Structure formats: C-alpha cells, structure tokens
Amino acid sequence: MTSIINVNLPQQSYEIAIAPGSLEQLSQQMTGLNLGKKVLVVSNPTIFKHYGERAIASLTSAGFEVVSYCLPAGERYKTLNSIQKIYDIALENRLERSSTMVALGGGVIGDMTGFAAATWLRGINVVQVPTTLLAMVDSAIGGKTGVNHPHGKNLIGAFHQPRKVIIDPEVLKTLPMREFRAGMAEVIKYGIIWDAELFAQLEASKNLNQLRYVKPEVIDVILTRSCQAKADVVSKDEKEGGLRAILNYGHTIGHAVESLTGYRLVNHGEAVAIGMVAAGKIAVALGLWQQEDTKRQNALIEKAGLPTRLPEGIDIEGIIAALQLDKKVKAGKVRFILPTQIGVVKITDDVPSETIRQVLQGM
C-alpha cells in the first residue's frame, strides 16, 4: 500500500511516496515528472552494494541513461571536495538542465546530492531516495541541502526542493541498529514539537531501540506521521523565515556536540538526543516546561537506546563558544527552540549563557 504525503509549496510542490518495494519500481515512481533521459545516481559503497543494481536496473528498463558515483560514507566526507567530485562526473557525462540526480543513501548523501543538483548549471532536478530512518523522516524532505565547513555543520548550502521523495520501508532491514536509533531521535522530536498523538503512540510502543522489535504498523505510524509533520511545517515556511526553525529542536546544542567531537564520536541522531535533553532542562529552568514532561521526553529517548548525557570529557566552554557559530544566531543571540508542552514549542533568543552552562554542567 502506498501512502502519499504532499508538500505544498508556492513554486514547486511535490510528493512523498511511502511504499514497500518502491526501490524496484523507481522508474514508475519517477514517470510523470517530465525528467530528462540522463540520470546520475549518487550513493555510498555500502548502500550501493545493497541497492544500487536494483535501482539502476529499474531506471534503465524505462529508458533512462544512468551513471552512478559512490562517495565514502560518513559526515566527515560532507565537504566541498566531495561536491567537486560529483561535478566532475556530471561534466564527464554531460548532465544537462533537464537531467536528474538521484540521492540513494542517508542524510549525508541526500544533503550533498541535493547541493550538487542545486548548483550544477544553476539547478537541475533531484529525486531523494532515502535509505536510513533519519533521512526518511527528516533530511530528505524540505529542500535543505549543504555541506559542512571545518568550523561548523551545514554552513554552506542552498534550498533546493526535490521533485519527489521515494521511501521504501523495506530498506530499513539492512540499517545498522545504531543508525535506526539515530533516526528515532528525529521521530521523538516531531512528537515534542508538533504531534502529541505521535508522542503518545511512541510511549505506548514496548520497544523502540531495534527495528526487529518494532511492529510494522508502528513503523508505518512513525514514517507517515513524521513525514506529515515535516511536510506541514515546510509547507508553512519553506525557507526558515519563522516557524520552520522549530525543526531545529535539539539541534542547537546537538550541532555543537557533533562539531566538537569531529563528527566521529557521536552521530547526528545521538547529538540531537543530547540536545533535546539539554533543551528540556533549559525549558524547565526558565519555567516554560513541567518537570514531568521532561521526564517523559527523556524516558522516550532512553527507550530508543539514545544517550541522555554529554560525551565524557567534552569541553562545556567549547560548546558555549560553538553555539555562536550556529546558523541560527541572530544579532549575536543564540536562538533556542524550547518546549512548553508535549506537541508545542516556542522559539526564543532569551536564554542566559549561565543557564546553558549550569544545564550542561549537570549533564
């Protein structure tokens, strides 16, 4: 059964299609989009080994001329140097304005392929085919693309909406357990910022830390409600003028933790989990949130097998300094997303450094 979620935007609306087996039907999923003949599939070696041939076979059977390129896996390769390699392949294979890049992989591949597509010939088509839970529910949707600068995450990028997002839940079966948990951090985020019903359903689920213990109907709820939440927010605020900033819940401190640990010690989802715990504690300290709610949030984070404490030996002053380099800083003030109840958050830049410091010292 296919679930279709629409992302309604003034200039380019598109569909998120969630359907088991859709990887085999990639060409059918892409027909009707008026795409050119040439397709560049960008992936990483691990994902490509599992799914590359199937994706390419589907596309070539429909008459697409397909080339592929694999970038190394990992956040530390999310650089302009990797983008240059995609450009080289695009040039070599004469990709045109009507051509399409297909991102087959997790968030790193999706972000880089999207950015390459946004900037090649001033913008060509991109289709997102996310293969991790985190990419399915978050990074593949909404058109945020980019790469990291040595001093900060995603500082270089562009908004470039995909023509379609194609999600095959079957591919989660080959996802490492740690990566599944990382995706659950973003799912929990949606429960806190937007969807109290999703939060309640996650609380009711016995186990959230391994795919094999999560019932298929719960996976269906996780994917459809998370994608719907992201689509709702992006449709209301495409380029982060206001509301869309709530999607950064847990990311402010999370990005600083990732950056300070060189993108090697904690993955994105783990960093977001730590950031959500910190944001919850800040909200309680400022009298915005009930202690009981922060306990519920943290219990859910633990149920998903995610960390609730800072990595051993991390420099707290380093985190506070790194916050100033965050993209969300405005007039020198760090913008935080803080919960006021389950399903509702507020955006504020009125968080004293001393409060941040005290919360981090307690973690």
Please sum up the structure shown.
This protein has 363 residues and is α/β, with parallel strands linked by helices. 44% of the residues lie in helices and 17% in strands. It has a seven-stranded mixed β-sheet with strand order 1-2-9-6-5-3-4, sandwiched between helices. The protein has a two-stranded antiparallel sheet with strand order 7-8.
For the structure shown, list the relevant keywords.
363 residues; Dehydroquinate synthase-like, alpha domain; two-stranded antiparallel sheet; 7-stranded mixed sheet
Question: Overview of this structure, please?
Answer:
This protein is α/β, with parallel strands linked by helices and 363 residues long. It has 2 domains: 3-174, Rossmann fold, CATH 3.40.50.1970; 177-361, Dehydroquinate synthase-like, alpha domain (Up-down Bundle). Helix content is 44%, strand content 17%. It has 13 helices and 11 strands. A 7-stranded mixed sheet has the order 1-2-9-6-5-3-4, sandwiched between helices. Strands 7-8 form a two-stranded antiparallel ribbon. Strands 10-11 form a two-stranded antiparallel ribbon. α3 (80-92) packs across α4 (107-119). The mean pLDDT is 94.
